[in-house]
Amino acid sequence: MKKIFIALQLLLSITSFAQGFLHRDGQNIVDGNGKNVLLRGLGVGGWMVQEGYMLQTQPFASPQYVIKQKIQNVIGEQGTKEFYAAYKANGITKRDVDSLAAWGFNSIRLPMHYNLYTPSIQEEKNGEITWIEEGFTMTDNLLKWCAENKMYLILDLHAAPGGQGNDAAISDYDTTKPSLWESEANRAKMIALWKKLASRYRDNPWIGAYDIINEPNWNFTGTNKNGCDENSNGPLRELMVAVTKAIREVDTNHLIFIEGNCWGNNYNGIFPLWDENMALSFHKYWNYNTTASIQKMLDYRKQYNVPIWLGESGENSNVWFKDALSLVEGNNIGWAFWPMKKIENIAGVTSVTKIPEYDVLLKYWKDGGQKPSQDFAKKALLKMADNYKMENLTVKPDVIDAMFRQVQTNDTKPYKKNTVPGKIAATHYDLGTNEHAYLDKDFVNYRVETGKFEDCNKGNTMRNDGVDILPCKDAGLNGYQVSFIEDGEWLQFTVDAAKQNTYNVAIRYSGEKSEGKLHLETGNGVQTESIALPATGKNDNWKTVILSGIELKKGSNKIKVIFDKGGFNLNYLDFKEGKNKSKK
User: How big is the CA angle at 478 (ends 424 and 460), to the nearest 5 degrees?
Assistant: First the structure.
C-alpha cells in the first residue's frame, strides 16, 4: 500500500508539470519547451555519505567506514544503528527542501552511497546482485519534496561500489578491499544499480539528470595517484559507456552528466561522446575566478557542442562565491554548491552546532585515553543527530546573500535591524561584498599551484566575509568581535534612527599594545574627527571611548566606521542621544 501511495504521489507531480524533461539542446540544457534552464543547486553532502571533515573527525577518521567503527567502539552495534537512523532521518527533511527553495535554489544534487541501495560484493552470495529498500525510499521522499517545490533532483553516485578514487574519504574507499577499478564485480554492481535507478525514475521529469560517477581520482597508467596526469582514462570511459548503455535500455528520457578523472576535471581520452543527451560536469575549488580558470571546459563545450555544468564548488569566502557564480552564470553554466550541513561551518548555507560532549568523543577518538561511558557517548551522538534538524541549525544569511543577491548587484542591505538609540554589534555590518559593505585586505581564499592556503577570515567564526571575527568574552552584546583590524579597513552599517538627532557613540574596544584610531562617515561626505583608542594592555581588557556629536536623520542611515589605524578589537558601538551638534 505504501508503494502504491508513493507511486500515486509521483504520478500527480508528473501530471502537474507540463515542461517535460531536462535535456541537451546543442550547448544548452533546456526543458521540454526548449527554454534554457540555469541550474542553481546545492549538494546535500554528508547525508548518505559521511566525510570526516564535515564531522571534524579528519584526519583520524576520514572515510565513513572508519567513522562508523569509531562510533561503534563507544556505543556498540545497536547504539550505532540508533544513531544512524536518527542522523539520516534528520539529515534531509521536507523542511530542508522547502528552505532551499525559499532561498533561491532550483535543484538539489544528491550524493548517494551505493550501500544504501545494494550490499557490498563481500556480502552478496554467489555473485548475485540484491537490493536494499532504504536508499530508494530516501530518494523517493526527497524527490517528492523536490517536486512539491518545483525543484530538480540530480542523482549523483558519490560512493561507488568499492570506491572510485584514492581520495578515500570522498567515496568511502577501504584500501583493504578491491576498489571499483580492481573488481569486475564492483563495476557490474555499479552498472546494475544505475539501471535499477533509471528504471525506477525514467518517467519522472523532476529527476534533472543522472551524474553517474562523482570525482573519480585514480591512476590507471600515470604516476599521479589521483589521475591528474592520465592521458587515456580508458577504464573510466569504458565504464561510463557501459553505464550509459544500461540506462538507455530502460530510460531514454533523462540527461546524463559525466565527470573526468582527477576529481572530475581530466577529460583526456574521454572523447568522442557516445550519447546524444549528455553534458559534461566539472568541479571548481579555490582557484581564480577568471575566464582562464574555466577556459578548457568552454573549449570542450564549443568543440563537442555539449552543455557544461559546474557540478560541485564551494568551501570558500563569500567574495569567492559571488565571483565564481558571476563567472559561470555569465557563461550560461549552471551549478551545484557544496555542502548543506557541516559542523561549526561558516562557508555553507547552514551550520550544525557542536556540543561540548562531542568534543570529548573527538578527543578520545583522536588521542585515546579514558574511554567515555556508553551512556555518555550515546547521549552525545543522539544530541548531535538532533542538531541536524533544520530547526536546530544556524542559517547563514550572508552566504545565501552572496550566492544569489550579490551575483546580481553590488547594493548592500542590513544584516540585522540596527536601531538607535541602542547598541550595534561590530559584526552586524551590512550584507554585501568587499569594497561595498566592508573593506578588508584579505577577503578570498586561493589555493593555486603552490598549494599554499591562507584563510581570509582569520577567526573562521560567525560570518564568511573577509572581515576577521573572533568569539568575544566581553559582556554586553552578541558574543563576537571584529579583530585583526588593519589600517584603512572599514565596516558599513545600515542604522534606523528613531528621530533626527545628534548622538554620542560609546566605542567598546580592546588593544594589547598599540593605539588605534577610527572615525565615522554618515553620508554625503560628512565625517567625524578621528578618535584615538589607547592601548588597553590585553586583548581581553575592554574599555570605552566616547565619540560625540554624530548627526543622523530620522529613518535609514548608512554609517561607515573607518579604521585609520588598526591593531585593536571592536565589540560594539552604543548610540545615545546627545545634546551637542557634531564636531567638525
Answer: 105
Q: Which residues of 377-414 are buried (b: 16+ CB within 10 A; e: fewer)?
A: bbebbbebbebbbbeebeebebbbbbbbbbbeeeebeb
**Amino acid making up residue 134:** E
Separation in Å, CA 423 to CA 419, 461, 478, 571:
8, 21, 10, 10
Contact 353, 344 (CB under 8 A): yes
Listed in order, the ranges of the chain carrying CATH 2.60.120.260 are 411-577
Q: What is the per-residue pLDDT across 450-474, written as a single tens digit (0 to 9) for each?
A: 556 666 778 889 999 999 999 999 9
Give Cα 44 distance to the centre of its chain.
Answer: 8
CATH of domain 56-399: 3.20.20.80
Determine the pLDDT at residue 454.
62
Q: Does residue 92 contact residue 142 with C-beta atoms inside 8 Å?
A: yes
pLDDT of residue 527: 92
Would you state the torsion angle of the CA atoms of residues 265, 268, 273, 279, taken in this order, to the nearest 10 degrees? 10
Q: How far apart are CA 297 and CA 408, in angstroms?
A: 24
- Count other Cβ atoms within 10 Å, centred on residue 479: 15
Answer for the pair 401, 454: CB distance below 8 angstroms, yes or no.
Answer: no
Contact of 187 with 239, CB cutoff 8 Å = yes
Q: What is the CATH number of domain 411-577?
A: 2.60.120.260
HSE toward the beta carbon, residue 410, CA cutoff 13 A: 5
Cα 91 to chain centroid distance, Å, stands at 14
What pLDDT is attached to residue 5?
41
Could you give the residue range(s) of every CATH 3.20.20.80 domain in the chain?
A: 56-399
Q: Per DSSP, what are the bridge partners of residue 266? A: 261
DSSP annotation string for 242-300 = HHHHHHHHH-SSSEEEEEBHHHHTB-TTTPSP--SSEEEEEEE-SS--SHHHHHHHHHH
Instruction: Determine the pLDDT at residue 455.
Output: 65
Which CA distances in Å does 415 have to 223, 374, 432, 562? 49, 43, 9, 18
Taking the CB of residue 435, how many other CB atoms lie within 10 A of it? 13
Residue 88 has φ and ψ, to the nearest 5°, of: -75, -35
Regions of the chain where pLDDT drops below 50: 1-18, 580-584
Q: Taking the CB of residue 451, how many other CB atoms lie within 10 A of it?
A: 7
CA atoms of 256 and 348, how far apart (whole Å)? 27
Cell (9 digits) for 459: 577567526
For residue 316, give the C-alpha cell.
Answer: 570558500
List the grid coordinates of 156: 549523483
Q: For residue 53, which amino acid is it? A: Y
**CA dist., res. 522 & res. 503, Å (int):** 12
Instruction: Match 543577491 to its residue by C-alpha cell.
Output: 405
